[in-house]
Structures are given as C-alpha cells and as structure tokens.
Amino acid sequence: MEGELYVRLGYTMDALYRSITRHLAYSLGVVPTQASKRDIYLALSYSVRDRLLEKMLKTNQRYEDSGAKRLYYLSMEFLIGRSLANNLRAMKIYDQVAEALQLLGTDVETICDQERDAALGNGGLGRLAACFLDSMASLDMPGFGYGLHYDYGLFEQDISNGYQREKPDSWISEAPALQVERADAACIVPMYGRIEETKDKWGRHNPLWLGWNLVTGVPYDIPIAGYGGLTVNRLRLFAARPSTEFDIKIFNEGDYLRAVEQKIESEKISKILYPKDSYEAGRELRLIQEYFLVACSLNDIVRTYEKDYSDFNKFPEKVAIQLNDTHPALAVAELMRILVDQKWVPWERAWDITNRTIAYTNHTLLPEALEKWPESLLARLLPRHLQFIYDINQQFLDRVVTLWPGDVDRMRNMSIMEEGPPRQVRMANLAIVGAHSVNGVSALHTDLIKKSLAPNFFEMWPERFNNKTNGITPRRWLCVANPNLHDLIEDAIGPGFVTDLERLRELEPFAEDPAFCEKFMQVKHGNKERLKDVIFNTTVVEVDPASLFDVQVKRIHEYKRQLMNVLGIIWEYLALTEDGVEPVSPKTFIFAGKAAPGYWAAKQLIKLIHNVGNTIEDDPRARDFLKVAFAPNFRVTLAEQIIPAADISQQISTAGFEASGTGNMKFALNGALTIGTMDGANIEISQKVGRENIYICGLTAYEIEKMKRAGSYKPKAMYDKHPMIKRVVDSLASDRFCPRESGLFAWLKDYLLADNEMFFHLADLESYVKTRELSTQEYVDKTLWAKKAILNVARVGHFSSDRTIRQYAEEIWDLVAIPPTEAE
Ligand code: 26Y
C-alpha cells in the first residue's frame, strides 16, 4: 500500500450513517434495528473517535515537521464533562449526525444525553484545565494535557432528607469510547527505597537510589478537538499498573500472596480522585498520586524531546511545563533528578534548564489548601528527590543571605523547609523557587500573592510574578450549552465570534432594539422551561419559569458564603410573612454544589438550604412568592443546563478569598446579571460590563484585611444594633427551620456572632440584601433587564479562555501556533 496512510473517512450524512451502522455491527455486535440508545451512542462515539484520531495523528505530524516548541499542562484534575456534542460541534458535523440518527429512528439530543460526565476534577481548577485544552487546540497550539486516569471520578451526590450522600462515580466504563490505550508508551516509576552514598570513578560524590519499588504508568490518550476540527491535540492520562519486573522478583522469592497484594497496592494509585478542593491537604496516597503524575509526564516529555535532540541545551526552547497549582510541584525535583542523575548534566546547568522550563499557577490563598508534606514521608517515599530539594533550598538560601545578611526571619519564612516538629516541605515555596513564572488568576488575586502570600519572594524576583486572568471556552459554554442564544447572536452579528469573542461587542446596539430584546428574552424563557423539567425530574420541586431565577451553583464552602444567600432568603421570608412585605416579583432560588465528604460545616449548609426551602413551601403565605430548589449532583452537564437559564448569578465570596471564579464568566456570557462582591474576577467583569450592569455589594478585600488586623469586626454588636439581623439569626437558632430535628442549626448563631468569624457574613449582610432588592425591582422592568443582560453578553468577550491562552503563550511559554496546511 503506497501513498494514502489513512482510509477515507467521510463527513457527509451518508458516510456518518454508514460509519455508525458499521460500528454497531463490528465494534458492538448488534443489528441496527435492535440497537439500544446506548448502543447507538457508543457506535456514534466510535465513529467520532475514528475521525478524531486521524486528525490527531496528522496534527502530531505537523507539529513534528515544524520542530515547534510544545507546552505541557500538568494537572491532577481535568473536569471535562461530556465530549460527544462538543466534538460534533467542533468538527461541524452536528447537523449531519442529527440527520443520520433520524434514519436510525432516534435524535441527536437523546443520543448525546446517554453520555456520562468525565468528572476527573473537583471544581474551578479542573474545569479551567479543560477550557485551556479546548483553547489551545482551537488556536492550533501544540499544547498537551497530562493527568491521571482515575477509575473513580468525583463522587456522585445523592440527597436524602436534605443530607448529602456520596456514591462512587465509576467513570471507567465510559472511557473506551473516548480514549485509546497506548501500551507502547508505558513507563516505569520508582518509589520508596534508600540512598547509598558512593563515589564515581573520578572520586566524586555519587549517591545512588536503590531498592525501590516499581509501578508501571500506562497512558491513555483522549483526543481534544479544536474548533473547526483540523487541529486535534491530546490529553494523556496515566493509569497505575503493577510492574511486571517487580512481580518477577517476588515470584523468585516464592512469595505469591505478597505479589498479589502488591499488585492491588500499585493499582490503588490511580483508583480515585481526591474529593477535596481548597480544603485540608495531605494524605500519603495523595502525595504518591502527585509524584506518579510528575514521574510519568516528565518521562514522556523527556523521551519526546530526545527523539530530536542529543543534548539538553535546547530543552527550555522546545519545552514549556505549566504546573496547575502546586499539586505537580515535585516536577522541579524530578526534572533535576533526571537531568543530573540520568543525563549527566552538571547541577548548575540542570538548575538553569529546570527553572527556564517550569512555570507555576497559584489558584488559592487559603492557608488550609497550601500543600505541605512531612519531611519524614518524603524521606521514605522519595529519598533522592528530598536530597535535591535540600540542595535547591541550600543554594537558594545562600542567595537570600547575600541579599539580606542576618535577616533570620526572612530566611525562615522563605525556606522550602518549614521548621518542625514536624519538619515539612512547603510546596508553594518549592514551586516559586523552581519556576521562572508565578501567576495568579485574576488581577486582585495576583496583587494579593505579591502583597500577602509571598511578599519576600516578590521583593527578590519581581519580574517572576504576573497575572493571567482566567477565561472560559465559548464553545462549550455558549455553542453547546446555549445553542439558541448562539444562533440568535449569529443572526445578529454574523459568524466568526466563537473564535473571536471580543466581536460580541457588535451586539451592543441590539440592546436598544426591541425586537432583538424580545427574542433574547424568549431564548432565556426557553432555557428556563428546560431547566424546570430538569429540576422537577431530580427534586420534585415545581418551579415557575415566569419567576426570577436566582442562582448560586459551585462547590459548597464557607468562603463562598452560600450561608449569606440563605440569610438573605430568610430575611425576605420574614419580611413577607411577618411584616407583610411582598417581593415585587416571585423568585426561585436555585442552588447546586457538592461538599467535600469530610467537611462538616459545608454538609450542614446543604441540609439548611433544604430545610429553609421546605419551611417556605409548607407556608401558604410564602410559597407563591419564594421557592428554593437544590439540584442534586452538580457537575459540568448540570451546569450546562442551569447557567443558560439564570436571571441572576450569585458570586458573593468574602472579598480576598475567591482567587478568580469562572462560573461568574459563564453566567454573564449567558445573559445573567451578577450580584457579586469585589472579589476575584468579579472586579474585572464589573469593569468590562460597566458598573451599572452589575450589582456589587459588600466590603472590599482591603477593608476586610484592615478590620482583621485591627480586630474591629464585632458581629455581636451588629446583631444587637440591627433588629432584622437579629431576627434572621435568632430564627436560625430556633427550631423554625428544623421542627423535626430540634437544635440542628443552633450552632450557626454562635458561629455567626463570633469575633473570629473568618468570612464576615454579617458585615456584608445588609449591603447584600439591599442589592438583592434593587435587582428584583429592576427585573420587573423587562426592557431595562433585557438591555442590561444583552450588554453583559456583548461585553464579556474578554473572558474567553482563548484570550487567556494567548497571554500564557506570549508572556510565559513563548509558544506559537502551528496552523493546518491547505491540504489538511
Ligand atoms: C491540595 C488540595 C486540598 C487541593 C485540591 C484542589 C487544593 C485546591 C484545589 C482546587 C482549587 C480550586 O479549584 N481553585 C479554584 O481555581 C479556579 C481556577 O483558577 C478559580 O477560579 C477559583 O477561584 C479557585 O477557587
């Protein structure tokens, strides 16, 4: 067979139909007339996968031919959600497939609805990684994801009597339709063992890492289609498997049972995603996972580089590595180890290469989410890496001493090692020292990194710190989630804005056009109808699409202040039932979100939301005005159904705590108005959409910081002074919202009134409630509302992840696009 490397895969309706029926027969062994929806879903997915893989191979060839630099995005989380509809849109075959499925007696929505979410992440950080992959492919950039192939993704959330129950999420059964196993590229990862101090033949110090255990890393590739479908990049996920070499050793000792036990042990490494975000780091298995990701990725990266180059001088010009938070920060030590121990690069030279290659993104300032690992654990698990960390720290502290002689406090603060007991390795310090770039994810957050998290490092290396405000991919969060709004916009301003989102500005004049406003509100209403059904099917709460949909969906966390939202609801409820103040519009409060399984306060909040909802529903004076729905099992797919239906988006974190937020951007793009604090990216969103098109409330980060330093926050005084605050708080302490579980929420009163209440709920409550009132009044004025909502859509183009990725590429990675040739 000469010439043509690939069979001809068609993109017409006909070709796609044939492809689906062929896969029904030859991949699944079913007759088309007897195929279930699930069979058709799989056959279609395989047909799509064929086409993606071909484009992926061609893309890779193009990158190889160009010799271009590559970017590797190392992340413990990739929160992808569903892939099929997204891929059909990217490849521009959605309509053809829709027709082909008609012939098979079904429809494209039903079939796409068969897919389970790939929930390989917790929240913002994981979803950001998925948006970035989409943008890099859509911009024709050689950017690849590296992550773990978890058997179990984020748990499924059931609600029982208002309480969260966790169920395992077995994603693995879904995976074959998306991925290809690459056993040929498997690698071997050493861990544990000991160091033997030896000398090499020239008598130089030559420590050897011996007696390790081995685990195999088997890669699975998931194709990531750029918009247009010509560039297809790769997300490579590693699964841990027992190493065969390891088995043989044990078998020789005749210890069969131990061998089998060890087999199970190794597979544990990629078994499950840790379900915590921004909350309490640290278990041995988690560190092993982080190391396993780093070791597999760097092995792959170095191997790819060495295909083209015989020494490492060009490494930083051909390779960029971005660390998604400190989770893969061991990459600093691992790259040093590879260069020094395996490639014989001198230490100083290796350090220069490492530093110029690696960059680090910080996503949180919360002290409990900053990773620290006990020195003793590292000494056991990774003795050689620990030596590199000591050496890195030593030469770093030597520089600190020359710059600030005698400043012991500064040394102690900047050291990678934290004094004990127990002595710990500070992963953020390791990442900052090891990387040439440290970035925050919004302007405020970056400012706080410089001023509060790492001021000494900023003083030492000001040029190292930079901001990259987050973004979201308009492909998923507009085209897939809200196709009707996409089509309406396209009718108005023409095609092309999906890859050039600033062009949404051209919508501005339409905010004054009554016919457009009318259609815009119709699209919103249709989305609210769709959400009504989803909510009814999962909660049996019946919501009214004519009411104001006021939405807060995100992980449940004290700093995100779902509690303040509930206090606001109780406030309105008491005003209505006890003071006779009717809201000017009926309102539906929609919540969704998961709590980390061990996070008691967050789980209580889920219960509180349910109970307040039930109390209101049981009260004939209130139920026609106020409604509360908690949609269970929040995930990417549910977000795609909720966000397009929102009138109001609540982004009310305590200022200074939410690094950026990305939900805020998704809502604004879908025409919801934000009620928000001056936190994270809310600040930049308000600058873009205009102060009159967003509802801002609460204290600023600097006001809160000042009050904390002065110790001047006295919630008890506010409670005593303000009768309504008192009524709201006292209602929580009473059994009003827990008639059948007496005393359940009494703790909340003490919590809210404590001087050390970290999140300033009562400080912001009055300003928040007033702002909510204003928004409800404006909602009733449909012309005003439509105008503001349209202006939000028109002005959020800046928050496309395409813009974010361009900035990373230019300012950190020095990465250029390698667009497809005519022939492709
Ligand atoms: C170490 C472990 C406990 C841990 C695991 C996950 C710590 C943090 C996380 C995840 C953090 C996270 O999702 N942060 C969010 O990142 C988003 C993307 O930058 C931001 O928009 C959001 O404000 C931030 O909370």
Total helical elements: 33
Report on the biggest sheet.
10 strands, mixed
Assign the structural class, choosing from mainly alpha, mainly beta, alpha/beta, alpha+beta, or little secondary structure: alpha/beta
Helical content band = 40-55%
Radius of gyration: 28 Å
Spell out which ligands are present: ligand 26Y
Average residue-wise pLDDT: 95
Features:
glycosyltransferase; globular; Rossmann fold; 2 domains; binds ligand 26Y; transferase; single chain; EC 2.4.1.1; Glyco_trans_35; 824 residues; six-stranded parallel β-sheet; ten-stranded mixed β-sheet; 25 strands; pyridoxal phosphate binding; alpha/beta
Explain this structure to me?
This protein is of the alpha/beta class. The protein has 2 domains: 67-82 and 117-168 and 178-273 and 283-469 and 808-813, 3-Layer(aba) Sandwich (Rossmann fold); 480-698 and 768-799, Rossmann fold. It is 48% helix and 16% strand. It is built from 33 helices and 25 strands. The strands form 6 sheets. Strands 1, 4, 7, 8, 11, 12, 13, 14, 18 and 19 form a 10-stranded mixed beta sheet that branches. It has a 6-stranded parallel beta sheet with strand order 22-21-20-23-24-25, sandwiched between helices. Helix 1 packs across helix 4 (94-103) and helix 22 packs across helix 29 (723-733). The longest helix has 30 residues, at 37-66. The protein is globular. The two termini are 21 Å apart. The mean pLDDT is 95. Ligand 26Y binds at residues 122-125, 128, 276-279, 281, 363-364, 369, 371, 441, 470, 658-662, 680. Its cofactor is pyridoxal 5'-phosphate. InterPro entries: Glycg_phsphrylas, Glyco_trans_35, Pyridoxal_P_attach_site. Its EC number is 2.4.1.1. It is found in: Cytoplasm.
